[in-house]
Write a structure and sequence with these properties.
The complex is a heterodimer. Chain A has strands spanning about 5, 10-15, 20-25, 30-35, 45-50, 55, 65-70, 75-80, 90-95, 105, 110. Chain A is mainly beta. In chain A, the strands form 2 sheets. In chain A, strands 2, 4, 5, 6, 9, 10 and 11 form a 7-stranded mixed sheet that branches. A 4-stranded antiparallel sheet of chain A has the order 1-3-8-7, with no helix packed on it. In chain A, a hairpin with a 2-residue loop joins β5 (about 45-50) and β6. Chain A is globular, with a radius of gyration of 13 Å. Chain B is mainly β. Chain B is built from no helices and 11 strands. In chain B, strands 2, 4, 5, 9, 10 and 11 form a 6-stranded mixed sheet that branches. In chain B, strands 1-3-8-7-6 form a 5-stranded antiparallel sheet, with no helix packed on it. The relative contact order of chain B is 0.34. The chains are: A mainly beta, B mainly beta.
């Protein structure tokens, strides 16, 4: 097991374009989380899944954002009609419901020009 | 609403010194508290996790303490090294939900 992986690691896009990020959690973990981090700040919670069910969404997750976790395995986070304010590091984490310790991936850095 | 604060925002010390980073939280109904390290432009590395029933955890030169009733945690780094230079973040997970609520971090610089 190599830990949580995220792809791509970096994404540069023009304003108005759609982008999709992928997260592969640790295989036995049933919970998966998305966070967003801007420069100089701590991460902010976006959403989390237990298996394939999306159980909580932050108010930060506007209608331009959508996340899925088909079959309770990998997850995708899509941002439609990107804006410059979406530029941030998008972090994915996973945990096992028993221990609840969250393990983080390396993140996807999004730059919207 | 839970709020997490880290003081100081930045700290610069000579190599070899022992140091303490502080984290405070406003609601004591937490499930656990985690300390993370983040290198510039990189993801998060978990350092220590303290369950709400625990008072401290140790890993190598790191020791984290938790005082739930006063809403405080400290991260003690012994015999600091230049490789310890990074941003250190604390995060709490509340009893009632599973998201982590984060402080803004302490940027630590260890001078050779």
């Amino acid at each position: 097991d190599t830990g949580v992986s995220q792809n791509p690691r970096h994404k540069i896009t023009k304003r108005g374009q759609n982008v999709t990020f992928r997260c592969d959690p640790i295989s036995e973990h049933n919970r998966l989380y998305w966070y967003r981090q801007t420069l100089g700040q701590g991460p902010e919670f976006l959403t989390y899944f237990q298996n394939e069910a999306q159980l909580e969404k932050s108010r930060l997750l506007s209608d331009r954002f959508s996340a899925e976790r088909p079959k309770g395995s990998f997850s995708t986070l899509e941002i439609q009609r990107t804006e410059q304010g979406d530029s941030a590091m998008y972090l994915c984490a996973s945990s096992f419901s028993g221990t609840r310790e969250q393990y983080f991936g390396p993140g996807t850095r999004l730059t919207v020009t | 609403k839970q709020e997490v604060t880290q003081i100081p925002a930045a700290l610069s010390v000579p190599e070899g010194e022992n140091l303490v980073l502080n984290c405070s939280f406003t609601d004591s109904a937490i499930y656990n508290l985690q300390w993370f390290r983040q290198d510039p432009g990189k993801g998060l590395t978990s350092l220590l996790l303290i369950q709400s029933s625990q008072r401290e955890q140790t890993s190598g030169r790191l020791n984290a303490s938790l005082d739930k009733s006063s809403g405080r945690s400290t991260l003690y780094i012994a015999a600091s090294q230049p490789g310890d230079s990074a941003t250190y973040l604390c995060a709490v997970e509340e009893d009632s939900n599973y998201q982590l609520i984060w402080g803004a971090g302490t940027k630590l610089i260890i001078k050779p």
